[in-house]
User: Fold these one by one.
Assistant:
Number 1:
Amino acid sequence: MSRTTRGHVKGAARARARVAFWVLLGLVVALLAVAAFARQLCPYDPYAQDLRASLLAPSAAHPLGTDRYGRDLLSRVILGAQSSIFSTLALVALVMAIGTAVGVVAGWRGGWLDALLMRVSDVFLAFPGLVFALAVAGVLGGGIQNAVIALVAISWPKYARIARSQTLAQRAAPYLQAERMAGCGTAALLVRHVLPNIAGPIVVTAALDVGTMMMELAGLSYLGLGAQPPMAEWGSMMSDGRSMLQLAPWVVVGPGAGIFVTVAIFNLFGDALRDRMDPATQRRAAA
């Protein structure tokens, strides 16, 4: 293959990657818009019960059917997007903030504080993640807030490790030495220089974690340790409909499809974001 042909092939690959990134970003924005305006998009009241319409099969009036209480499943799936997606994003944001703060402090200060914080993270990493989350959620009791707290407790060490390694690399950088000599304080160095320079890997990790966190949050709700009825949340809805799977399978199809589509979109977006922000990937594409 000639150099010109290789250049055309690589250029086409980069163009496809750019298009894929913007398409996936558009899908993520669409999901967030559905979650934000879920109440306005629901064709029926998601909590209105009508036992005369119990377990109706999908139809023109109810595209996803109804549940055992006669509630419209399409409306509940749409409203479930709000609780499921926003709870997951809040979870990822909390985990990222706590883990990054711990990692930056450990990497910047070093010494005994670094050793102490890393040994604490080792203790959390030693436990099987979901088992530990089940134990924490069981102690705290049911509820979406307690499920988020339980998952935060087990998920921050990964971000702490990433932030620490990146901070260690930045701490010895010549430009930071120059800023110190110019009289820049520690807080200003961290906020203006260190955090912006380590944000890339952390943000990419967070984007890739959205799908995983959503599955774990839905799993806790499915086991009765997350969102509690009558709250419209995808994991809780699947748990409520599991006993009717043979009689009325449509009661789990809607929330299951919501989880599948959302996790797939965020995972693909995370991959595209990593390819876009990873310098090594960009160098390979340009070679």
Note: The radius of gyration is 23 Å.
Number 2:
Amino acid sequence: MIGDVANLDQLASATASVVSDGPAAGCRALDLRVWEGIDVRLLPDRGFDPGAAWFRGVPVGWTSAVGERAPLDRPRDMDWIDAFGGGLVATCGLRNVGAPSEGHGLHGAFSHQRAREVRVERAVEDGAVVLRASATIAEVSALLDVHLEVQRTLTTRTGQGRLELVDVTRNRGAAPEPAPVLYHVNVGAPVWSPGATLSLDARATHPRDEAAVAGAASWGRAPGVEPGAGERVFEHEVAPGAGGWASATVTSPAAGIELTLRWDAATLPRFHQWVHPAPGIAVLGLEPANCSVLGRAADRSAGRLPILEPGEERVTRLEVLARALDDPGRPR
């Protein structure tokens, strides 16, 4: 197939642009499109997070009512939620995850950082055309000597429903720094709709509060839209499989696809689930993390706050895999 085309753009293209209208006006975008793979819109001015994404024309992420918008300059308290556009992945951290804590707002400020050194490489590997996009994202506070830096790489390819995300996080500051992180992977309709199921190898499940307790018996089934419903949050103790990777799979008869999230449990040992079935929301959040969702003070008190020493680095990895239910033999 590759030898039959005059220009690889026919099979795999990367298009950079600047949004000209609406709440995201002036923000950069990078659209990766691949034949028979996962197409994804990357957002360099929102932490280089994957925004909208599709597999064979089916939207596999979730877009909130906010949609794409520009980053906030200094998000505090609950500001994060007002600028939460959804997207396939919204990265939470790097200095706080969950409830506002110790002067840091809900879910931290990572997704409001503007990436630099954005670049794309295209290569032919094992008969597929591979697009590999990378960038540098930093959280810096000169007065507090905080300098956390992330080298992020995202990869998609032709012929496979497979999107890979690899982050190398370094503490370039002179002092130990808390560095919690959570990958807020968001799935909406038509994938997360009545009839869809979530499966994972959970050794135990912990509802966050009474609202979650009420839904504890049905966390693995898409509830459909429920007027007046609130959010439900669970933490699952997921058993890693081969190679130390854990996984969670959404099977959607309505969309005709299966969507699997895999992550390296060595550096992302915790897993949270967010379900919000209210009208106009109807979302499932799959959230590999190295921390709780209670904020850094709670993790510090529990002796579980992730810390990076000066010069230390960590590598976190996750993959989103998609396949058509009527094509079970296709490589994933």
Note: The chain is about 5% helix and 45% strand.
Number 3:
Amino acid sequence: MKVAFFNTKKYDRSFFELTNSKHNHELFFLEPKLDAVTAPLAEGCQAVCMFVNDKADAQTLEILAAHGIRLLALRCAGFNMVDLKRAAELGITVVRVPAYSPYAVAEHAVGLVLMLNRKLYRAYNRVRGDDFSLDGLMGFDLHGRTVGVIGTGKIGLIFAQIMHGFGCQVLGYDPMPNPSFAAIGAARYVELPELLENSDIISLHCPLVPATHHIIDAEAIDQMKPGVMLINTSRGALLDTKAAISGIKSGKIGYLGIDVYEDEDNIFFENLSDSVLLDDTFQLLQSFSNVVITAHQAFFTKDALQSIADTTLTNITQFERGLPSQNEVKYQEKVIAKSPA
């Protein structure tokens, strides 16, 4: 099967080319992101592979269908960038990678917690400049603190387990409770307002669906403890960025660590060091000394990239052979806010 891979980097190509020796598909790698303008580049292919910052809206899908595309393979877990209803109407099957390395994302979230708490980013730069003073670097013991986990699928569960290992009290919120979460020490499920009010650290690990869009907004931030630490390694639009900025200015948010940003599409995964960044909101976020931003790299481990390549190519092979896939994403009239498996 000939597959057009959009939005690819060198690391994508190396992992997919190596793994493809087991599948023998014809892989056609493209640098541009997928959208209505670039969709015609898939002409002559039967399938398209896209990434988290590509766009498969109705217009894009119609162009793909007109060029004979029958399969849309997502090499990521999220699928909010796909118009599933239109895909179903056009007869395009959508598959994804529901889980690659949940440890990668969970461990990165913990890394952000440690970096913010112990001011590691400041300490590193100070020592590089021969400044060995400790003023402004004071942190706090994680032991005994309360950590709120919003979304307790595989990633949220692993994050909770790690934080429990630090000696933290763990609170969870999820419309679809995970039995394994309640088995973590003294971890317990609570309603969202209770989690917001009692957590010293809050980490987001839920998918982006209509019910979770801006789940952390001005009202939610108002319910939090003064000086709370907020971590988001899941989806950018879970967090209302402007509300977060107001929370930072007021002191309600004492620390913010994000690996995702709601308007990241034209920023992340690119080298813009020679450009003028026109996103004023993002520039303002970068200016705060208590904010750490990484560019959607939480997933970026050898283990995760290998798993993504394995699952994606297996999804394509199963489709080619007419076999059902447990990773197919089907359109539903109502989508339940469920944490990623």
Note: The CA atoms of residues 239 and 314 lie 33 Å apart.
Number 4:
Amino acid sequence: MPLIEFRDVTKRYAKTGPTAVENISLAINKGEKIGLIGANGSGKTTLLRLLLNFVRPDSGTITVFGENDLEKARKYIGYLPERQEGLENFTPRELLSFAIKMNGNMPNIKTRIETLLSFANLSEVADDLLTDFSKGMWQRVMICAALAHQPQILLLDEPMSGLDPEGQKSVRSFIGQLEDMTIIYASHNLNEIQDFCDAVVIIHEGSIIEKLSLQEIQQEIFLIETIPAARAVVEKFQPISPTVLAENDNLYRIRFTASAANVQQLIGQLSAADIPIHKLRSQGVLENLYHQYVTQATEIL
């Protein structure tokens, strides 16, 4: 049985308005780390709100651990929203204590708080006000608050939003330590999804377009621009099936999907034949799919 399951779920925020999510079915197993990607307004945040029972579906069912009463099931879930306001006058220690008590209390609260503070490298600032924290430190505190009651599921909504490079680095390191949790990570940043997730769900205009395993994507899309003499080498190179984008007396431009190892082999063969490469560009398969489905791009490279 899936840990989380959406069955034919539809949600509209107004009777005459657009559909936020439409006829969505999705199963998530224990331990999976799922990335939700899509443009703003695609339905990512609505899916998280439905799971948390903040809003209710117009039709369809949602279960967590087989439980269809999502108010009861919320004890299994930790949530980091994209925006948090009104918490500036808390200290990390106060906020974690409050978060634990809001989720039903638990034994050894003090020990749990100290464990979280240490885990997030926040022990030395545990009694400082959040108003003086950097955005990266703030996000680490908020993730700790989401984890305070020891949930088995963690929902992250744009956790890197607004962070500078140093803040991104600290939060990325923190999230990377959460190996045993089931995570749903909503973002439009493809690099984040590839860093943290083992599968991705592409959402467009409230519908799931595709779910695919990132572990199965071992190739990238490459573009090479060189001279016409390269054609003889490329045609003999069996690992790729290139698409010729342009060819004339001075130019040979191709696009193909291959592993990095295959591309290195091809470059070696071109170099051995004294054939120069004028341009080499790559694009991830996930990025390509995103452009196809979400931005409707017609030119990939």
Note: Residues 135-147 form the longest helix (13 residues).
